[in-house]
Amino acid sequence: MSNQSSEAISVLEAYKLSKQVSSPEGTLTILSDVSFTIAAGESVAVVGPSGAGKSTLLALLAGLDLPSTGHVVLNGSNLSRLDEDGRAVLRAESVGFVFQSFHLVPSLNALENVMLPLELAGQSNARAAALEIIEKVGLGERWSHYPAQLSGGEKQRVAIARAFATEPAVLFADEPTGNLDSRTGATIMQLMFKLNRESSTTLVLVTHDQALAARCDRILSLDVGKLVSDTRAAV
Amino acid sequence: MKALAFALRSFSRELRSGEVLVLLVAVGLAVAALTAVGFLTDRIGKAVARQANEVLAADLRLRSQVPVPEEWRDLAREYNLETADTLSFPSVVFKNDDSALATIKIVSDGYPLRGKVRIADTLFGEQRAVDGIPASGEVWADGSLLARVGADVGDTLAVGELNLRVTAILTYRPDQSIGFASLAPSLIMNIADASQSGLIGEGSRVAYALLVAGDEAAVTDFNDAIQDILPDEIRVRSQEESSERAYNAADRAQRFLSLTAVISLLLSAVAVAMSARRFAHRRMDTVALMKSLGATQGFVISVALVQLLLLGVLGVVAGSVVGFAAEELLSRILIDLLQQGELPGVGLRPVILACSSAMVLLLGFALPSLIQLRNTPPLRILRHDVMPPPPSRIFVAGLSLAAVAALLYRSVGDPVMLLILIGGIIVIAGLLYLLGRLMVAVIGRARSGVGVAWRYGLANVARRGRDSAVQVVAFGLGITVLLLLTLVRTDLLEGWRSTLEDDAPNHFLINIQPHELDSVGKLFELSEIEAPVFTPMVRARMVSINDESVKDREYPNEDGKWLANREANLSWTEAMSSSNELLEGAWWPAGYRGPPLASIESEAAANAGFSIGDRLKFVIAGREVEAEISSIRKINWDSFQPNFFIVLSPGALDGMPTTYISSLRIAAEKQPMLIDLMRAHPSVSVIDLGAILEQVRGIIEKASLAVQAVFMFTLAAGIAVLFAAVQSTIDERRFESAMLRALGAKRRTVFAGVMAEFAALGTAAGVLASAGASVLAYLVATRMFDLAYSFSPMLWLAGVSGGVLVVCVSGYFAARSAVNSRPADVLREVNT
Ligand SMILES: Nc1ncnc2c1ncn2[C@@H]1O[C@H](COP(=O)(O)OP(=O)(O)OP(=O)(O)O)[C@@H](O)[C@H]1O
Ligand SMILES: [Mg+2]
């Protein structure tokens, strides 16, 4: 599978991305001239020191924000050509997220949090599908618990279940283990890679953890807003 | 559709979570307050109006120069109204050789329909209220009438061709103030005796009246129904025309009640606005998340809107229940005042009005926040500091003002007053905001010189610049309207007190001939009563205005036509009466003896379409006098001074047949001298204003009580609403205090910090509110209530201390739970 021609089915394409923001000290370039292509089913780690622009890049790739110049093609659509709602619809169809701080809706219980994207995508059997995936992440007993009643690791499991629930083409994860101890972090990543394999999702993972990055097919290194290396793990 | 389904599904979850509780409470509170105030104003308004209607002895009075046709009675019956007939006319009554002019009042069963007649068994004896009317063959007569003819209870009087036995002294009839300036002492007899008396027929000056009373709505319907088919000779009088004095008090009470309704509305608006803001803010993270999960803007806003509406409905239902309970409770407490049982129930009307008002407020104030919510950038999911662009201030202000204005218009009615109020609100809110920001900046600077708690608190105020300023606006507006209410209430009660004072004139003397002035004056001197001022009065008929005949002329309304066509009472004077106020033009100079000038009462001028420069021609005893209008005045009817709609300049009426009238106070123990006066000057009529004064006092006392009751209630509701507003700002403080405590701050320190913040907010709000209320109260007092406004330094004290107190006390309760919750719990909630 991984030795199929990866150029043929690219699911994510960054073309000369730069991002400038204005600050009191003048214009600040936080990303400059970043280009790469990610093939379907690939798992890619984005690494770099704090402040390198990793989260910014992720936001651009997922269409949460627009680049100052350059563009992103996600699943065949140029994000810069879509309006905010267009990007939202695209995200609903083909994107999943896992965040460092889990971003569960506090007023919804675990099951309802997982149902959320399914409901947004208009799936009729949201509940059944959500229950199934919640079972898979090992929270079958605790589906009715609210985020405040769950530990960090459990919250992240819910978040992962939510991300995979819609079977997205691309899964973005921004330091998913950043708020967890190393043991819990390891189990969480185990779970993520497993689900990723099962559903042949493309994974874009921002991490500080070299060991974690090494488990990906490919590593993109950023420093001060620039792409400094793009290495593929030996197959 | 998808959004609707989703909104419905997730709504119960939202409710369970308690997230939306504050908004729910605010809406509920608004509805409850509006319902209760609406109920009270409606109820008290009706009670006051009914009391005022006593002056008519009916709700509606159809008067006519010819007998009222039977069909009118039938029509009234069709509307389920009670009716009674009265005939009144002057006639001379005899006891043997003694005679006196009396006002004969012939009444039918049921009279009076409103109020009660009171009688006594002996002259100056104990009086009692009676139901019913004199039996056929009997009369009840005024004590002064009996005194004049030397009769007593049990004697027989000759009335027309009948001999009727006096069975009681008439001490009071509700409608005795109607047309009192031409009244001689009265005598009531049964309508069964009317035809045999021979008094009613060709050439007699009988004023017929059909009294109508019943359910308010039915009376209004009946009144509307007859307007178009009313023949010329029948005129309808409703309460407001019947007695200026009684009407004034009732009218002001009504205005105060409307003002109170307005204020409870504004308070509710503050609470709803604050909690709608919070509603939107709290949802921002969820919206960013939903958007990152692929929700469109339309979806996000639809969901929020549907949920807001559902919340509104829930709040409205909860509020209605509370409001209804409050209504029940209030009507039990105020049973006497409200005349429960006598008045029909108000039903659901206040509830429905309150509910729709709350929904309008909710939409008007929440919509801008929702629209802002719609623009939440999904990037917020990664960078918490990115905020949606704030909604345009013009848009926010426009929408919320439109909502408030729409609702206010119902209570205020008068567009000018509405503009003043809205303008006042805009100016005060704008100033509050600017000053709030200024203060926030100053506080930010000041914090280096204070202890850690204060530094933390003040730093908070400064950091949340815009938010703090918004809070200052909210609290400030709330305090402003409460202060305004307090001020106006004080002024109003103060103004009424003078009417209730005991030295107001209680007697009118009319029909004093010029040659009697000296001897009448002497009689008072003998009884050691201060010599009264005699005001001249000349009967005249207006014939033309600017050479156009009064008959042909067009008038702005029926009252004006009536005024111009009826016999007019004119007077002349050198100086304007102290009970008058010049509105337009100039009073004639002292010593003026030029061509006749006239001064007109403002309402009469408006009704008849008279303005300065118009020439009015009168015929007096066959001679013509033409006077040019040189000024327009307002009359303070509360003064009980003799007053005339039309007053001419000195000399204008020289040589015309003149009589004099006078008003004076005669203490109860000196009143027997009036019998001497009436014997010595039989043609002089003495009118006892005691009963009228008593009526006016009744209304005013009731109105005062009403004003107090509604005031207390609104004050309580206002404080509750401010409380809710403070609650809605507590979220962040919860987190911050947890964090500070986690960092090792003592609970006391954190608490002191939060309180410092509230104290600063409260002070700012109080200072600004005091300033705002002073200005508004001045405008409202002078424009809405015709009251003199007096500046009070107490206001500032009350405003500032009240502001600090309310904000701090409600802040205390809100903050206590925040500060006391375990930091672990709070911090745990945050990382979700
Ligand atoms: N809207 C913005 N305004 C100002 N500065 C910004 C903005 N967005 C990002 N930055 C800055 O750009 C740089 C890159 O931020 P980014 O969050 O992408 O870093 P990161 O690589 O994810 O770092 P970390 O590993 O600490 O999460 C940082 O210095 C950040 O402060
Ligand atoms: Mg980052």
What's the layout of helices and strands?
The complex is a heterodimer of chains A (235) and B (832).
Chain A: E1 10-23, E2 26-39, E3 43-47, H1 54-61, E4 69-74, E5 77-78, H2 84-94, E6 95-98, H3 110-120, H4 126-136, H5 152-165, E7 170-174, H6 182-199, E8 202-206, H7 210-214, E9 218-223, E10 226-232
Parallel strand pairs in A: 3-8, 3-9, 6-7, 7-8
Antiparallel strand pairs in A: 1-2, 1-4, 4-5, 9-10
Helix pairs in contact in A: 3-4, 3-5, 4-5, 5-6
Chain B: H1 2-17, H2 21-53, E1 60-64, H3 70-78, E2 82-95, E3 98-107, E4 117-120, E5 127-130, E6 138-142, H4 143-149, E7 156-159, E8 162-172, E9 186-190, H5 194-197, E10 207-213, H6 216-227, E11 234-238, H7 239-242, H8 244-292, H9 297-333, H10 335-338, H11 349-374, H12 393-412, H13 415-446, H14 452-463, H15 465-500, E12 507-512, H16 517-526, E13 535-545, E14 548-549, H17 558-565, E15 567-572, E16 580-585, E17 597-601, H18 602-608, E18 615-620, E19 623-635, E20 646-648, E21 659-664, H19 673-680, E22 685-688, H20 690-727, H21 730-742, H22 747-784, H23 794-820, H24 823-830
Parallel strand pairs in B: 3-9, 6-8, 15-20, 17-19
Antiparallel strand pairs in B: 1-10, 1-11, 2-3, 2-7, 2-10, 4-5, 4-8, 6-9, 7-8, 12-21, 12-22, 13-14, 13-15, 13-18, 13-21, 16-19, 17-20, 18-19
Helix pairs in contact in B: 1-9, 2-8, 2-9, 2-11, 2-20, 8-11, 8-12, 8-15, 8-20, 9-11, 11-12, 12-13, 13-14, 13-15, 13-22, 14-22, 15-20, 15-22, 15-23, 17-18, 20-23, 21-22, 21-23, 21-24, 22-23
